[in-house]
Amino acid sequence: MLRYKEMKNRGKVRGYSDFVSFIESHPTVNHGCLVDTNVLFSASHQLDLFNEDAERVFDLLARRKVPLFTNSNIRAEFLDLHRRVLIPEGLITLLENSEEDLDPEVSLKLKSLRTRYRRASTDNKAFLLQDKEIKDLRAMLLKFGEDQKDAWQIFCEDYLLGSLDRIWDGVVEGLGLNFLNLRADEETPELSKKHLGMVLQA
Prior knowledge:
The chain is an alpha/beta fold and about 200 residues long. Helices cover about 55% and strands about 10% of the residues. It contains eight helices and eight strands; from the N terminus they run ββαβααβαααββααββ. The longest helix is centred in the middle third of the chain and has 27 residues, at about 70-100. The protein is elongated, with a radius of gyration of 20 Å.
């Protein structure tokens, strides 16, 4: 469920169903909207449960020319979510490209991962690995390698390098995101939280 609330009244959270009437009756929304991590992720990942709702919200805000803002913390959290998506996708591609060359332990683990991924895709659900499982997979790949590079480093270079930056750059360009400075001594009037009308969350 997408939520939103006025910056001046953080205790009042509303659902998506009355979003249109809310922004029409609150002109301060036109000052700008701080976009939360999960809403950005929903809009950028088609299998996310709230993808369609997020896209509808951003389409509406774009038509009204409402400025959208983010900050470095939101960016870091957004990239971490997509990292947890890209790693299993990359590992499955590695399996399908090089299964015959993989150690049996690695092959078996990645086949199990592929089964879970396919099940989630069939159910139209986003598939994100938890940090503990990523660490376990990394530890497994660290045991293998060639040419003074371990298998995890090779995997990251071949299947992940540059992907996160491209995803973030695409979201920034597609939504027209502006950066909101977090340090008070760096804030300018047009980028200060106190000048925004709404925070959009999921």
